Amino acid sequence: MADKPAISVEGVSKKFRLARDRPDFLKEAIKKGERTDFTDFWALNDVSFDVEEGSMFGIIGHNGSGKSTLLRLLANIYRPTTGSIRTKGRISALLELGTGFHPQLSGRENIYLNASILGIPTKVIEKRIDDIISFADIGEFIDSPVKIYSSGMKVRLGFSVAVHVEPEILLLDEVVAVGDERFKRRCFEHIYELRRQGVTIVLVTHSLGQVQSLCDQAIWMAKGEILEQGHAIDVARSYLNQVNITEAEAGFDGDLGDADLILEGRGERRGTGEITIEHVSFVNAHKAVTPFANSGRPLVCRIHYKAHEPIKNPSFALRFHTDSGTMVTAPNSRRGRINTGVVDGEGVIFYKIPRMHLTPGTYHLTAGVYDENNLHVFDQREREFELRVQPGNANDAEGFLDMGGNWTMPGRGDAEDDEIRDSEVGAPLSGDGSPADEAEGDESAA
Amino acid sequence: MLTATNELWGYRALVQNLTNRQLKSQYKESLFGNLWSMINPAATIGVYSLVFGVFLKFGRNIPGVQYGDLQSFPLYLFCAIILWSTFNRVAIGSMGTFTTTGSLLKKVYFPPGAPILAHALAQMKQTLLEGLMAMLVLAALGYFSWSFMLWPLLIPPIVIFSFGIGLVLTLANAYYKDVSYLMNILTMLLFYCTPILYSLERIGETTVFGVKATTLLQLNPLTHFVDASRECLYLGVAPSLTRWAAIWISTLVSVLLGWAVFVRNSKDVSEVV
Q: Does domain A7-244 have CATH number 3.40.50.300?
């Protein structure tokens, strides 16, 4: 980390005059001074924070908390009323996708236009245009006017330009939440890539999962002030707690506000109800119940069930989804070869994970109970439970999984390593001694 | 002011692209396409000629005409109106630039002067086109003059002069929408206070509040622009040095003053557009 922060915000406040009070008419401007009817609105109030160079910084908060105003100030679109903002390096801001696309010009022409809006010389763009076009994945449409593009294509093109202009500081406003799953994943990959290159990234988002899994530091804003700042995971947790409390007070029927938190289909429950899933809890290596798991550490998932009548050999299942909805793994007790026997009344079943292979982030769990053939659904609670994986003592892997591999180099005394190095192409693959499983991936048969 | 100028220079790629964007998208999706850039001036000439040339018989005895019997009011008018309409497109037309690029200013930072400059630059093409049109017609009628060569020298000053005024108008209009309504009226007044439909000689000895009307009209910088244009094209004479001096002095005053006002007051313009 460099000693000097990439962004330094000191005591920044921003005052807006409310729209209705803007003197739209000369008359009002003329009688300036005697005006008593206007109110000032402080969108930001004495905000201070630093963003380390090369780090990823999250800004969370309810709608209207001043997040976007703050981002605009960072992007130099607005000037602070008081206080100062110092930034180091070229800023690329992506506050809204498709910024400045001219509908009648072609995608290619718009790339040049868009890049020049971001202050990039034409020469630089000429070098990168192929990358931009291929990342946007627009194909032959690149030379057609932008107005015939689908909204997804515009989004891709806008993102592609913004991330390919070699920013030193990238400001993102929720934009990564748009687009289809595939593009979203590529965006995240690219963001990781930029991070690796040392780009400082500021992300305004509603997705706590994104903050927890992507950001190092975060601030939580409310009513133009910083409510909490610190480690992203802690800040997001406090924010979530607050949301939960507010929701509980509102009796769950009020405006959820941050509805983005809930992905489509989440919380859906179906099944005939002979057995119900009561709860899912987690126990860590120290035999303590916890909402958190640590990467690389053991964890036991406990599914608490209640059988309302005796059921023979039901099958229990868990599904782990990432924050963006991708299913990572789906263990179930039937495939786990466990005979659950006849169950009746309340009980609990464990799914023991010797070593947490998921990388840090928030995961949503679906818990379900089915008949012994996994055909009939007794109860299934879709992504209703949350597991937060924190960085453990393992190496921080990127992506969803840390496969737990080790890196070695041959020729350092390990006979097996040397044997592997000297393996011939086409030599028959030998099993590792364990019984072959379902003939899956049996490449040696080919 | 210097830093703002430097910054604008740093964004020259943007100015260039915005200019191209305007030129390329203009007349797109219209049936006649670029033909409109010819039809519009032709129609203007047609209307004024009909009213002033045919109904009011302005065409006779155009003072100071040195070309034997070329008593063509439409051409006389056209040679002057080219510069007037350039002024109109650049200065008055630039008020619309914030409505098209204003939303952009809210999303990404760039110097707010850039779209106005781009708008001004994009108008040069039309001016040049109209000038060439006038020269072609005059030459075809046998009235070629070497003073045609001087005419293009009028394009930079008229565009820069109008740009300076456009900067202030655009900025003022962003804060007070009245400006554009007010300008509708003022433009009309200015049009008739500029010797386009008439020449200064026609006014004679009329006085306004004891001051000679011609003196008053000569205080209008546009008088020198349109007269110079008419001299270069229609009359076939080189404008006097005094005229060139008047043109360039008003140009520099307009652009320096306009830019200074704009730089001082445009810092928060992204909040109001």
A: yes
